[in-house]
Task: structure prediction
Amino acid sequence: MVKAAYGKRSVLFMAMIKIKFPDDSAREYQAPVNPAAIAESISKSLAKKALAAKVDDKVVDLSFPITADSRVKILTFDDPEGQEVFWHSSSHLMASAVLELFPDTRLAIGPPIPDDFSSRFYYDLDMAEKLSEADLESIEKKMYEIAAKNLPFERDEKDRIKAIEEFNKAGDIYKAEMASEMADNNLSFYRHGNFVDMCRGPHLPSTSFIKAVKLISVAGAYWRGDEKNKMLQRIYGVSYPDKKLLDEHLAKIEEAKKRDHRFLGRDLDLFSIADSIGSGLVLWHPKGSLIRHLIETFWKEEHLKNGYDIVYSPHIAKLELWNKSGHTNFYSENMYSPMIVDNIEYELKPMNCPFHIQIYRARTRSYRELPFRWAELGTVYRYERSGVLHGLMRVRGFTQDDAHIFCRPEQLREELERTIKFNLFFLKTFGFEDFDVYLSTRPEKFVGSPENWQAATDALKESLEATELAYEVDPGEGVFYGPKIDIKIKDNLGRSWQCTTIQVDFNLPERFDIEYIDQDGSRRQPIMIHRALLGSLERFFGVLVEHYAGNFPLWLAPEQIRILPVTDQINDYAGVIAERFRQAGFRVGIDSSSEKIGKKIREAENMKIPYMAIVGKKEAEDASISIRKHKIGDMGSIEVGKAIMSLDEENRSKKID
Result:
């Protein structure tokens, strides 16, 4: 007979249960058994690396009692869920260090943030002292001291009403507010040493697992992101199980700073955001506009090749349109206040989809015409809080590479597969090969029938499996009108960026009562697929800048080749060479300044121009050029015609170095 305890619960069991592992092997254990014991039974090395476990679909502590047949995965730092547990525990460790140094601090929230490359966890703190860099160093030092004590993270439970009373008595107003909003009768708490925090968990076995820590920065953050609430201090940090991993990550952070699209956008004269115009509204400079033009042209040409039609729609519409679509009920917090025109309320468009539905409604449609694939580079406007605006990555006005497909039910699976493949072609053309794919299911607030939601979810799942894309289910993260596929691209630093969204929608066709005449003469409702492949041109452009570190491939570079005459006497020949490249379709510049050739080369390198053509007296006599490639150097002398042929092939093939 075995007694097991978890929190305040204890159970007695003698039955044998079957534990199934990710490789489909299975073992029997006497119930209850915890993941720590299971890891130990598999191997000592696994037990040493184990951080938490996934029991069926739930991530739990290693001490969690398993009482029935279950599927179990032991999580280490190699697993994303294991990393999240690690960084969550690190936030608790940091909070305990802060309280030791600043005892009057009131704690707010401290989650892990695995999708934030520059930091992996934070904690929001209400404290009288304004923290400095020296304070961060002191907190970091204290974290190492506490971690070295090997304090176990212990879970306990407490009655919710009693917990709220204790929070209020202690002046923990933020914890009291959060606890009052929870529906559970009992709340879970985690303790290490003298530090206790309300938390769902799970956490590491002990503080000693956290071997390497760096506190990155401190910033202001409104409680719950609301400007009406008090400004707190947010400490960001990163942590790893060993110093080598931490050093590697810190090196990547430094590299990311060099690639920051906001600074490269300024240095390369690509775009700007002016206070006189407004936060989150982008001004595209000539060079940035040229790159955008190249992206848009490629986008339109490929859509036309793949059976899409291009459409355009207005920037505003009557508010009643958004009432009918459901956006004012489910999306109002991201919409701007209506404007009055001719005593009628109009709204800046946050989406393109209702406009495309109106195009569909313009006349009767036959089953023979479907599917319709209508694509639009449509600029939309969404309210974002000022605190989350970030260069091109988070803006208030942006252009979606939007499309809507109207199809018959029997066409849905084929259209989804086609869309996924088309999307992968686009992303790979721009140099992305590594993806994180998520299937997002029904949220708490939704419209439409559960049956339609299930049918849509099944269609997305089957399409992903047919295209052999590995994916994870993201429960409850679908949009209000339907489930979706999200594809995140990974850049050269391994950072994930939200890009593609593919959504199935039974709801809007029903709300707008759109139909087609079927083969038997009956009226049927089409299914609508919403899809954006690149996401928004602004964010995608920002990602490209950072992915390439501003070193755009030849086909996207605003200036593809710069002619560098060695002396002023060669300027005429340089002009002739430039014109030959220009006539061949290249974007060419000439540095006809009186600077030394070394300075001209440095300037071209700083502007990240893919190729330089150096011309001197010898090249003028031979009708040749001396080619230099950005970041590589001298490529040798070559006849002009051959250089044009070689670069033309690279340009047309959209080669990515």
The chain has four domains: 2-76, 81-254, 309-539, 561-652.
